[in-house]
């Protein structure tokens, strides 16, 4: 197995910043408790408060795939569908 990192960025639609923040905060604890989760940290951009960034570390791509299919992530995606203007997920492998 090879450890991977994820940078997940979500930008809230204007007026939905706090709803999105609360939803994001709600997935932190269950995600950290998942098998294979090494780090799962939520950040908010100081210069663009509509931008939220997760920095995650997972034991493997398989662990990340299980996370992506988890019930709490499915519920989160459904809840935030109308609150997000843009999102990106970058799956990374450390090279040095």
Automatic annotation (TrEMBL):
Pfam annotation, one family: ABM
Superkingdom field: Bacteria
GO terms, molecular function: monooxygenase activity
Keyword list, A-Z: Monooxygenase, Oxidoreductase
Record bears the keyword Glycoprotein: no
Domain ABM: 4-92
Presence of the UniProt keyword Kinase in the record: no
SUPFAM superfamilies: Dimeric alpha+beta barrel
Protein name, as recorded: Antibiotic biosynthesis monooxygenase
Organism: Paraburkholderia edwinii
